[in-house]
Amino acid sequence: MASMQKRLQKELLALQKDPPPGVRVDEASVTKSLSTWQVDMDGAPGTLFEGEKFQLLFKFGPRYPFDSPQVVFTGPNIPVHPHVYSNGHICLSILTEDWSPALSVQSVCLSIISMLSSCKEKKRPPDNNFYVRTCSKNPKKTKWWYHDDSV
Amino acid sequence: MAEANSKPGESLDKALPSGVEYDEAIMAQQDRIQQEIAETSQLIGDHEDLLLLSKEYSEEDNVYQGKIKDLRSKYKCFRRTRGDGNCFYRAFGFSYLERLLDDRKDLERFKEVAAKSKDMLVSLGFPAFTVEDFHDTFMEVVEKVEQQIPVEDLLATFRDQGLSDYLVVYLRLLTSGYLQQNEDFFVNFIESYASVKEFCGHEVEPMARESDHIHIIALTSSLDVGVRVEYMDRAGSEEVNHHDFPEGTEPKVFLLYRPGHYDILYK
C-alpha cells in the first residue's frame, strides 16, 4: 500500500507540473488515499474530436503499479469511437493484458489521445448495445479481445 | 471490442450465462490458480537435493530419470522458483546477486553497468520517473550486496513480493532496452509483431509474460553475465543438454529448464 501511494504521489506531481497537451488533473477529484482521480482531456486539434471535452476516471488498487488502473470515460460526453463503449468502457490493451508497471497515468492519457486522434469515422463498437447491457461495472472484469490496433 | 461469448438475442441470453459471467468466472479461476501457486511455493525456495526431482516423474520414465542422474553428476542441489511467469527474471536476479556476494571484482563491474542503465532506458523513451523508481530499488539491493549482507537477507528480499517484483520489473526493462537498442538484429527473430518495440510492449514489459531464448540473450548480453541453461525435456538421450547465453561466455548463473519453467542450479 505504501509503495502505491508513494508512486501515485510522484505521478500526481509530475502530471500537475508537466501535463501532456490537452490534459489536466481535476485536483478536487483526487481522493485523500489517491486511489481515485479524474482527468480532463481535450480532443486534439486537427482530429475528429477537436473542440470536444472529455473526462477520464482513474481508479487504483493497492497492487498498483503491478496491477493496471481501472480507466473509464465518465461525465456528459463519452467520445464516439470504435473502441469506446457508450458506458465509457475503453478497449485498449495496455489497460489490461499489456499493462506494465513502467507505464503511468501520463502514458495511459497519451495512449488514449493517440487512439482518439487516429480515428477516421465516429462510430460506436459494433457490439455496443449487447456489451453495455451485459457488462460488469468494472471494465477490467471483461475479457477483452484485442483485434485491431489501427483504429 | 469485447469478446462476444454468445450472440445477442433474448432467448439465448436467458438460456446461457451472459458474456460477463463467463468472463468473471474465467478471471476468478485464473486468480484462484495464481493464489494456489503462491500458497504452495515460495518466490525463491530453499536448497533442495536434486534427488527430489526424480520423485516428480514416473520410475519407468527412462528419459527423465536418466537426465536427473546426469544432472546429479554435474550439480549439488537446486532452488525452486515460483511458476508465475516471472521465474526466469527472478531466478537470474537472485542467483547472480547471490554469486556477487563472493565476487568483489565482478560486483564492481556490475554496479557500474547497472548504474548506467537508467540513462540508456530513458534515452529509449521510457518515462524517466517510473524507470527511476525501479532503478533506485534495484541499486539499493546491489548496494546491500556490496555490504555483503548474509545470503538469508538477500533471500528475504527476493521473497518479499513487493520488493521482488520491483527487481523483476527492472530486469524486464533492461531486456526490453537491449532488444530495442539492437533492433536491426532482433527484428529477424520476431514473428507476429510489426516491430521490436511492439514485441517488447506485449512480450517483455508486462509482468508474468514468459521468457524465451530471445529474452535470455538480451538480458545476459545487456549485463554481460553468462548463463548456462540445462534443458530437461523429452528431447534426445538420457543426458541433459545445455546452452550458454550469450554464446561462448563463461557461465556465472546455472538454471534448470523444464518446459515452461526455470529453477536455479548449484555446482
From TrEMBL, chain A:
<dbReference type="GO" id="GO:0031625">
    <property type="term" value="F:ubiquitin protein ligase binding"/>
</dbReference>
<dbReference type="GO" id="GO:0000209">
    <property type="term" value="P:protein polyubiquitination"/>
</dbReference>
<dbReference type="InterPro" id="IPR000608">
    <property type="entry name" value="UBC"/>
</dbReference>
<dbReference type="InterPro" id="IPR016135">
    <property type="entry name" value="UBQ-conjugating_enzyme/RWD"/>
</dbReference>
<dbReference type="InterPro" id="IPR050113">
    <property type="entry name" value="Ub_conjugating_enzyme"/>
</dbReference>
<dbReference type="GO" id="GO:0061631">
    <property type="term" value="F:ubiquitin conjugating enzyme activity"/>
</dbReference>
<dbReference type="GO" id="GO:0043161">
    <property type="term" value="P:proteasome-mediated ubiquitin-dependent protein catabolic process"/>
</dbReference>
<dbReference type="GO" id="GO:0006513">
    <property type="term" value="P:protein monoubiquitination"/>
</dbReference>
<feature type="domain" description="UBC core">
    <location>
        <begin position="3"/>
        <end position="151"/>
    </location>
</feature>
<keyword id="KW-0808">Transferase</keyword>
<keyword id="KW-0833">Ubl conjugation pathway</keyword>
<dbReference type="GO" id="GO:0005634">
    <property type="term" value="C:nucleus"/>
</dbReference>
<dbReference type="Pfam" id="PF00179">
    <property type="entry name" value="UQ_con"/>
</dbReference>
<protein>
    <recommendedName>
        <fullName>N-terminal E2 ubiquitin-conjugating enzyme</fullName>
        <ecNumber>2.3.2.23</ecNumber>
        <ecNumber>2.3.2.25</ecNumber>
    </recommendedName>
</protein>
UniProtKB/TrEMBL annotation, chain B:
<dbReference type="GO" id="GO:0004843">
    <property type="term" value="F:cysteine-type deubiquitinase activity"/>
</dbReference>
<dbReference type="GO" id="GO:0016579">
    <property type="term" value="P:protein deubiquitination"/>
</dbReference>
<dbReference type="InterPro" id="IPR003323">
    <property type="entry name" value="OTU_dom"/>
</dbReference>
<dbReference type="InterPro" id="IPR019400">
    <property type="entry name" value="Peptidase_C65_otubain"/>
</dbReference>
<keyword id="KW-0788">Thiol protease</keyword>
<protein>
    <recommendedName>
        <fullName>Ubiquitin thioesterase</fullName>
        <ecNumber>3.4.19.12</ecNumber>
    </recommendedName>
</protein>
<comment type="similarity">
    <text>Belongs to the peptidase C65 family.</text>
</comment>
<dbReference type="InterPro" id="IPR016615">
    <property type="entry name" value="Otubain"/>
</dbReference>
<feature type="site" description="Interacts with free ubiquitin">
    <location>
        <position position="231"/>
    </location>
</feature>
<dbReference type="InterPro" id="IPR038765">
    <property type="entry name" value="Papain-like_cys_pep_sf"/>
</dbReference>
<feature type="site" description="Interacts with free ubiquitin">
    <location>
        <position position="217"/>
    </location>
</feature>
<dbReference type="GO" id="GO:0043130">
    <property type="term" value="F:ubiquitin binding"/>
</dbReference>
<feature type="active site" description="Nucleophile">
    <location>
        <position position="87"/>
    </location>
</feature>
<dbReference type="Pfam" id="PF10275">
    <property type="entry name" value="Peptidase_C65"/>
</dbReference>
<keyword id="KW-0645">Protease</keyword>
<feature type="active site">
    <location>
        <position position="84"/>
    </location>
</feature>
<feature type="active site">
    <location>
        <position position="261"/>
    </location>
</feature>
<feature type="site" description="Interacts with free ubiquitin">
    <location>
        <position position="262"/>
    </location>
</feature>
<feature type="site" description="Interacts with free ubiquitin">
    <location>
        <position position="233"/>
    </location>
</feature>
<dbReference type="GO" id="GO:0006508">
    <property type="term" value="P:proteolysis"/>
</dbReference>
<dbReference type="InterPro" id="IPR042468">
    <property type="entry name" value="Peptidase_C65_otubain_sub1"/>
</dbReference>
<keyword id="KW-0833">Ubl conjugation pathway</keyword>
